[in-house]
Design a protein that fits this description.
The protein has a domain at 22-102. It has helices at 4-20, 22-36, 38-59, 66-81, 83-107, 120-127. α2 (22-36) runs antiparallel to α5 and α3 (38-59) packs antiparallel against α4 (66-81). The longest helix has 25 residues, at 83-107. It is mainly α.
Length: 130
């Protein structure tokens, strides 16, 4: 049987390997570029702030005004044409793909892999009195 400490040690080594992967290195490099680019930071923050505002309106059942949609479209166009933000998006997707693949590889080793949808969750709920 494997100890918790052995698993933590293996995870630490995996974390070190992930940190040296080209997707992570590229993402970190791009984040440094973003830190040095005030205009890109402002655009990034404006876009996310406006997305949050629109999301809040939607959540509250308030109408999304034409000017909100136009501003969102304008910010999206600027984000796509900004080289640092375009690079950031690409490298974020590469990083997320790497993490998904690592997660899938770990999950594939579990004896519970493939049991989703077979009533296992319902059986656990029943045994817990839920």
């Amino acid at each position: 049987m494997v100890t918790t400490q052995e698993i933590v040690d293996a995870a630490t080594e995996l974390g070190a390997q992930v940190a040296r992967h080209e997707a992570v290195v590229r993402l970190e490099t791009t984040l440094k570029k973003l830190k040095d680019d005030v205009d890109a930071q402002r655009l990034f923050n404006d876009y996310h702030r406006h997305m949050a505002d629109v999301g809040q309106k939607k959540e509250q059942g308030r109408p999304i005004e034409v000017q909100d949609k136009q501003r969102l479209e304008s910010l999206q166009e600027k984000m796509v044409t900004n080289p640092v933000l375009r690079e950031l998006q690409i490298h974020q997707m590469d990083y997320l793909d790497l993490m998904r693949r690592v997660d899938d590889a770990i999950a594939g080793q579990s004896s519970f892999a493939g049991l989703t949808g077979l009533g296992v969750d319902e059986g656990l709920k029943d045994s817990q009195g839920s």
